[in-house]
Amino acid sequence: MxxxxxxxxxxxSESVAARIETAFGRVLHVRTVLGxxxxxxDIW
Length: 44
Description:
It is a single chain. The chain is of the alpha+beta class. 43% of the residues lie in helices and 18% in strands. The protein contains 3 helices and 2 strands. It has a two-stranded parallel sheet with strand order 1-2.
């Protein structure tokens, strides 16, 4: 089991999440979790 969790930036295509999930384990896209236009400080 991989310990990494990755959240992709809003500027990265959501399709990238599915492609890299096998390498990194759980991969989420910021738009899916927090919506659009969220400030970087809020993501951290």
